[in-house]
Amino acid sequence: MIDEHYINPRLAAVYDIESGWSEDRQFYLDLAGDTPIDILDFGCGTGLIANAYAAKGHRVTGADPALAMLDVARRSPHGDVIEWIEATAQNFRSEKQFDLIIMTGHAFQVLTEPLDVATAFANVASLLKPGGRFVFETRNRAIDWVARWTHEKQLETPYGVLGIQRIVTRHTEERIWFETHFTFPDGSFVSSSELRFWTEGEIRTLATQAGLKVAEFYGDWQRNPFDPDRSEELVFVLTV
Known about the structure:
Layout: H1 4-7, H2 9-13, H3 15-18, H4 23-31, E1 38-42, H5 48-55, E2 59-64, H6 67-74, E3 83-86, E4 98-103, H7 114-127, E5 128-139, H8 145-149, E6 151-157, E7 160-171, E8 175-184, E9 187-196, H9 200-209, E10 213-218, E11 233-239
């Protein structure tokens, strides 16, 4: 099931106000370099990174299961030169192959079952060119995400002040469930989410089974080694 904040047209329209450019997005942009290549962005959302790639001359395909997000993406500055496809990492199909496939914004954690990851990895293996890379990140389960995610804030939007409250409703070592309450002056929405915290070992095993290799592995966006107790991120670069 796709969360409300991805499928609701109003929430999709203000998504980039809450989730704008950041160091992780810069990390992904820098991966592509300056020579035009073929790039696939899984979970492209409103197309923020896809647009940044297109602005540098790369040939970009953006895939997302949420039509509301894709509607915003199609109206973005480079939306007319990017190929937009309604699909998940598991069911995406294309005649093309890609030099770089990315999955950003912790979208990997929406894959909550081993079969989801196995299917996505097998699909990626078929879509990568020789020497191509699949890059994604997932959060480290050792960090206290419950404390970090319980918060409230307000944002100025074209629809007036938007109040956002996130409440963790349940959590285990492996998974977290939370609600995000969005309140506009004229109405409110509630989005329910479930994410899984994958371990390094689980990802390495599933990648190997799909014919992928871990070429690089980092604990942050500065490419520092992963510290199981302190690193917030597990950043993977997989190749065929």
